[in-house]
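tokens incoming
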């Protein structure tokens, strides 16, 4: 069978194990443990003591992956004829680290991907979500830390069993909720939505009609660009006819940033109605959709159609 060796050392929630294959370590509390094995595999186990429920995730470690020097040599390798080839590592699924952080931490680090998305998209709502997930993780950790335990580290008494079960279930709910919310958010942050082709400019016999149709096509194109990359939309000043700019957005106006006179001129509405929109924006802080504008600002249907044709909602 050959020579073998295995020795474990425990210090509080941290356990280090030395064996023939290397050193592994794990950390956690009753009902929640993260283990880093000697082969590089990371395993997260969530359990509800006394119920038999257990959830385990694992990720492959280093294994047979080439070292950084190998990637560097491939990236710098000369091209000898034929079409240009880039010898570099290609990330085919950007943003999957969102789910890795949530699953490997059993939901306790769920605030990290939401904070990253908030920084990329500039949305206040995502910053609020990141704060909520951070507070929930702290609550789960505190609940696990105050759970009564015996000398062997098992929950002590009925109170210990109940608190341990509750903390495990909360961590599981935190992990599942964050993962579901991150599915569409990852697509938005990394531009993984299906991109429609740039709309062609409709043709019309009347030059005036053709100009209006061309402007509408430009507005659709600018809206699609703003949805894919809000930061670029801010830089190009899409929807801000009141500011100097070079990009032609076809006559859009940002209801979250433009002044009342610019909204009135772009949407062909009365100044009093545009001022009502601005007042409502100041009361709410910002709009999240055009429907929210129409409801809170009490816009009539005819004016709403004119606004919908020229309006844009950029996140604040």
């Amino acid at each position: 069978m050959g020579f073998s060796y295995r020795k474990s050392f425990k210090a509080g929630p941290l356990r280090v194990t030395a064996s023939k294959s290397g050193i592994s370590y794990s950390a956690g509390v009753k009902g929640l443990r993260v283990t880093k094995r000697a082969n590089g595999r990371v395993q997260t186990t969530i359990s509800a003591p006394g119920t038999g429920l257990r959830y385990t995730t694992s990720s492959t470690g280093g294994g047979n992956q080439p070292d950084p020097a190998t990637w560097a040599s491939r990236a710098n390798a000369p091209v000898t004829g034929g079409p240009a080839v880039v010898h570099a590592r290609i990330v085919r699924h950007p943003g999957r680290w969102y789910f890795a952080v949530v699953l490997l931490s059993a939901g306790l680090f769920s605030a990290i991907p939401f904070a990253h998305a908030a920084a990329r998209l500039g949305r206040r709502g995502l910053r609020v979500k990141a704060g909520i997930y951070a507070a929930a993780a702290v609550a789960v950790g505190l609940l696990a830390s105050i759970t009564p335990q015996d000398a062997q580290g098992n929950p002590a008494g009925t109170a210990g069993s109940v608190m341990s079960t509750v903390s495990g279930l909360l961590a599981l709910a935190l992990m599942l909720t964050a993962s579901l919310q991150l599915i569409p958010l990852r697509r938005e942050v990394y531009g993984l939505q299906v991109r429609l082709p740039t709309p062609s400019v409709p043709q019309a016999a009347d030059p005036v009609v053709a100009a209006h149709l061309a402007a509408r096509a430009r507005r659709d194109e600018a809206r699609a660009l703003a949805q894919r990359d809000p930061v670029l939309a801010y830089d190009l000043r899409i929807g801000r006819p009141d500011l100097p700019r070079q990009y032609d957005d076809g006559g859009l106006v940002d209801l979250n940033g433009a002044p009342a006179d610019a909204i009135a001129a772009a949407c062909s509405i009365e100044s009093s109605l545009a001022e009502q929109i601005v007042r409502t924006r100041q009361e709410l802080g910002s709009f999240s959709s055009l429907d929210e504008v129409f409801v809170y600002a009490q816009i009539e249907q005819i004016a709403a159609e004119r606004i919908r044709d020229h309006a844009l909602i950029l996140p604040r």
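note: Residues 60-91, 193-198 have pLDDT under 50 and may be disordered.
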